[in-house]
Amino acid sequence: MRRYLVKILWGNIMLTSKKYVLTLITSILIILSISSIVYASEALINVNNLNVRNGPGTDFDTIMQVHEEETYEIIREQNGWIEIQLEQGTGWITKEFISIQGTETVEQGEDKNIISNQSVTIIHDKTTLREGPSTDYEIIGNVNQGTTLEVFDHVGGWYEVQWNEERAYIPDWSVGTDGSLTNGAPSVKDKTIVIDAGHGGRDVGAIGASGNFEKEYTIITAQKLKYYLEILGANVILTRSHDNYLSLSGRASLANAMNADVFLSIHYNSTPQFPSAKGASTYYYSERDSILATTIQEELLKATTMDDRGIHQESFQVTRESHRPSVLLELGFISNISEEQNIQSSVFQEKISKGIINGLNEFFSY
């Protein structure tokens, strides 16, 4: 990056006197002081059809798209955007939808040490540790309740911790910090939660801007939510774990038969006639479920920063026929290109799980 900066400045400043030399040096120091230096790292793309732009921001033109699981050499970072090396030239992608592989990214002049001697305490047995800040990374071990780990960094909802002389990552909402439990405290422990991945089989649900089906997204969300709930000790049952058809009555009947503490029906919205529509909404049938709907909607918005499309009382069959605390969640618009890209991101799916679980914890505290 230093060579790149010198090249730019050299072409704009004629070094004909000490005055210009001083100007050059000062300019370099200023730019270096506000830039991030990325050492020998690669960007792993986490979504399909991610726009590559000719500058660090959405105001710049799109020059191409990159796709999930592709990797690109990182040149530098600026204001949440990453410049990557392409086959011909370079381009910029938002940092939100990538994972950085390789060595560390640090701010100029900043050392990555333990954060103010902060530590976290594991709140459930067999909590998994991973190589990186996402469930896409390999599991490298597990730890039991009560274990205390030193914290090096906090990135994207994950703590980087010291474990057996290695660096490892753990979700921030599944641990306690400084002796107190986070919002992820296991109040869901021993609760029976039935998760309904909406649609399936011949019922494809809504169709996204990419052509993908709603049924594909709902099963991904249901499985990820199940994974995190089980870490916290919940008993989780899926109405479907594969691409199969199940009647609405059958879904509600399962929740009733299992005497579920909560029944969650997962869905995604679509309005092709209004492609800019976006945001999350929560629906309930019985007045008794209004608190559940409120706590989940509020925590979901906090975790994802999605637009709030409100809490509504509606007579949907799947919640109407359930005799257990039930809500139907619309977790975004797959007809909106940008929101569908979010939904495809594993990082965003983790945020959805975090929000729902925090909402459940709040509900169970009543």
From TrEMBL:
CDD domains: MurNAc-LAA. Keywords: Cell wall biogenesis/degradation, Hydrolase. Signal peptide: none annotated. The keyword RNA-binding does not apply. One of its GO terms (cellular component) is outer membrane-bounded periplasmic space. GO terms for molecular function: N-acetylmuramoyl-L-alanine amidase activity. Residues 40-102, 115-178 form the SH3b domain. This is SH3 domain-containing protein.
